[in-house]
UniProtKB/TrEMBL annotation:
GO function terms (MF aspect): ATP binding; ATP hydrolysis activity
GO process annotations (BP): DNA synthesis involved in DNA repair; double-strand break repair
Pfam hit, one: AAA_21
Occurrences of domain ATPase AAA-type core (ranges): 23-315
SUPFAM superfamilies for the chain: P-loop containing nucleoside triphosphate hydrolases
CDD domains linked to this entry: ABC_ATPase (cd00267)
Organism field: Mesonia algae
Name of the protein this chain belongs to: Putative ATPase
Lineage of the species this protein comes from: Bacteria, Pseudomonadati, Bacteroidota, Flavobacteriia, Flavobacteriales
Family matches, as InterPro entries: ATPase_AAA_core, P-loop_NTPase, RecF-like
Length: 365
């Protein structure tokens, strides 16, 4: 689990020092920086996967640095995991409008694991890379880097917004593309087929959850394509129509997103950290409430970070799960709610209602 995150100089985030919990729900008006917080993890992922140069070429260092190079000399990040290990980096811009790694650092908490007496307390660190176009962490499996690797490669950013006819969600998948659910759920049919064949309990649980918000849905009919056994379609049956096959294109946008979210949050082997931008998009209020239940259940085994605009979704969580995001003095400001500040209000109103009434922050006024 990521227990602490620090960001400096990234997009609208001038400076951030935030403790994270098992559930982290970001709320705020449009344009305040919720998506920038989510996209910071995309930056970390591109650094780790040694795609920093390509990432910064496409987006431009001027667009990634807080108000450009004239205002911010660097982007720095720090991720602390389970109070034991941490990863940090500093990025600087070039004259070619790209970014390079000025410094890449791994950390180890000597106060953890009963090592204080031998090593002394506090954090130790190791600069593993400097003045480099790309990260070396992925290829470094010795010492502290070994443990940091295990954390960073196990957080995933998911985005199920594209539900067009040609989207990855609706098109056939390669049958053997089933190691894990892809970030865009492009292998949804293949992954569900694996669960159907090898993890029946989880597969039945997913079908049952889908029925709870789509009563016309009876069951999936998953098997390799009859004309090309290397591919598989997302086929299903409707109640009282056993002889009429349906496929992914017959699901509404909201339903197919909900199926992907259910598969993600109900899978047997959850990622260490799940990050989703506006998972409620296109969902019915009943489906949103069901989604909240799935998030809570998944958070027992993994960490959840989401941004949302849904009052219904917010109402399903406790104050300490909520992080408000506002824009002050040309920068994004993040604050976690506390029970003690809202106890009296929560006797009469839901958390979502308090958000609408501007009792808590995260509003455009």
């Amino acid at each position: 689990m990521i227990n602490k995150i620090e960001i400096k100089g990234f997009k609208s985030i001038k400076e951030l020092d935030l403790n994270l919990k098992p559930i982290n729900v970001l709320i705020g008006s449009n344009g305040v920086g919720k998506s920038n917080f989510i996209s910071f993890f995309k930056l970390v992922n591109n650094i780790y996967e040694q795609r920093l140069e390509n990432y910064s070429i496409k987006r431009g260092a001027e667009n990634l640095l807080h108000f450009g190079r004239k205002e911010s000399k660097e982007i720095s990040g720090y991720l602390e995991f389970d109070y034991k290990n941490a990863y940090g980096f500093n990025l600087e811009g070039t004259d070619n409008n790209t970014l390079f790694l000025n410094e890449e650092i791994t950390y180890f908490n000597k106060s953890k694991g009963g090592l204080t007496d031998f090593y002394g307390g506090g954090w130790s660190w190791n600069v593993i890379n400097s003045n480099s176009k790309e990260s070396v962490l992925k290829n470094n499996n010795k010492g502290i880097s070994y443990y940091v690797n295990n954390y960073i490669r196990n957080f995933k950013i998911y985005h199920f917004h594209d539900t067009s006819d040609t989207s990855a969600l609706r098109t056939p998948a390669m049958l053997n593309d089933n190691i894990s659910l892809r970030e865009d759920a492009g292998n949804l049919a293949a992954y569900l087929y694996l669960l159907q064949e090898k993890q029946t309990k989880y597969f039945k649980r997913i079908e049952h959850t889908i029925k709870s918000i789509a009563p016309y849905f009876e069951k999936f009919e998953l098997q390799p394509d009859r004309l090309n056994e290397e591919r598989i379609n997302l086929e299903w049956r409707e109640i009282n129509h056993p002889d009429t096959p349906f496929n992914a294109n017959h699901f509404s946008d909201g339903t197919i997103r909900f199926i992907a979210l259910t598969a993600l949050l109900t899978q047997p082997n959850l990622p260490e950290v799940i990050i989703i931008d506006e998972p409620e998009l296109g969902l019915h209020p009943v489906a949103i409430n069901k989604l909240a239940g799935l998030i809570k259940k998944a958070s027992v085994k993994c960490q959840i970070i989401i941004s949302t605009q849904s009052v219904n979704l917010v109402s399903n969580f406790d104050p300490e799960d909520i992080i408000t995001v506002d824009r002050f003095n040309n920068q994004s400001v993040f604050n976690r709610l506390e029970d003690k500040d809202l106890n009296k209000w929560l006797n009469d109103f839901s958390l979502g209602e308090l958000w609408l009434k501007n009792i808590i922050k995260g509003q455009p006024y």
